[in-house]
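Mods, move this if it's the wrong board.
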Amino acid sequence: MAMASHSGVPRRKWWKIQWFSIDDTPEEKKFITKLDLVLVPYILVSYWVKNLDQNNLNNAYVGGMKEELGFYGNELIRLQTMYIIGAVLGQIPFLFIFTYLPMYWLIPGMDILWGVATLLQFRAQSFAEMAAYRFLVGWFEQCHFALEPVIDKTIGSWYRGHEISRRGGVWYTGLPIGTLTAGLVQAGATRGLEGVHGLSGWRWMYIICAIITIPVGIVGYFVIPGTIDKPNRYVLNDNDLAIARQRLGKNGHKVQGKLKFHHIKKIMSSKHFWIVVFVDVLFWNAGINSGAFLLWLKSLKRYDSATVNEYGTIPPAAGIFFTLFANFSSDLLWGPVWAITFASGMNTITNLILTIWHVPESAKWFAYCNYGWSFALSSVLHGWVNNMLRDSPEMRSFTLVFINIIAQSSTAWTGLLAYPTVQAPRFPRGYAFSLSMSTSLIVGAHLLNLYLKNRKDSKAIDPSHTSDGDDTDILERRANVTLSQPF
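Not the wrong board. Structure tokens:
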């Protein structure tokens, strides 16, 4: 079995940047353009809404929730943790479900449900009630925390390995755009809606976010193309599917496969699987707490809550550029290992400045505005894993979701230990912890690449020996091959 790599497709020198591959036919270019105009904009908007609804908690906290509900202890980090618990637990059944159900039904359905859960937060009167709503938001958004691997799977179902990162990069800009928008919505709600119909500005923010979210979910039924084995016929016709199968088949990209329980033991017993898990855990823990900048601004006691939220949009605005640079450079310039190295190196600078702490205020402004590099490399890393497993959809589905479950679940307890709200804005343990993770991520990425380079070619299998896609021995050998190629 061959595995997609940057060397698997004819490409020109790095300085001759191009959108299409030189072996793409006119029909393939037309098909790719169609996908780019339908799939990529929608997943960007959907991920924007997801991050709008996830990050609005931080904005609500500095926008009046803290005082109104009496959250003067560690309630913020505990609410963030309840969200993570909901997202992690919701992903467990998703390991199996999303290889069976069409993506164009599953993703919009979860979008609509999390929109309803977002709306319910406007009526919260206590920590327990808000915690329950945050759990539900996390549970329904798990399709987006599985949507992160789900979108990686969806993109990986239509695009070849060297095409994934830049599409994933455009999609992932939804994270900083969502964070940015949450700040603007809260600032606007505080200034324009505070006290209207007896509701605080932060309560109006949740209503506005829900009004945005639910229609986006409905639209998804009509624009998500699904996967190549379960396509959405509203979007793609038979000719589109024939072109997709032909162009993916040129590099041995398998398009069908369902995860069975007996596959899991074989997948999880391989060393390379746990190396990928280790690297993903480092990635998830390498960034500072998402509310750290807002808490620092509020601690300065110079700005009202609306201004704090407005200034809070600066880091995610910079993060849009960081995300695009990391992902496009990965595809078009230097590959995933060096894109991860560069982005994580920039994030390490942020963590180092904040760990030292006693620096000029301008240095802190730089550090907080630079933290977007921590999430900029997500699609690079997961696109790399997606590409490693391109000939095994069932393994790709399991691996992308399961590494996400383990890595994200680690943040539930590391956040509580490293970033207790009462230590804001200094977070002496938190910034040092993030620094150790970001430096380790650089090392981990290169160790993974070195491991892949040293895999033995003798473990390759002859495709003619493959008689049953569910054969566990073949799956085990396929795992050794598909994870054996470096980038």
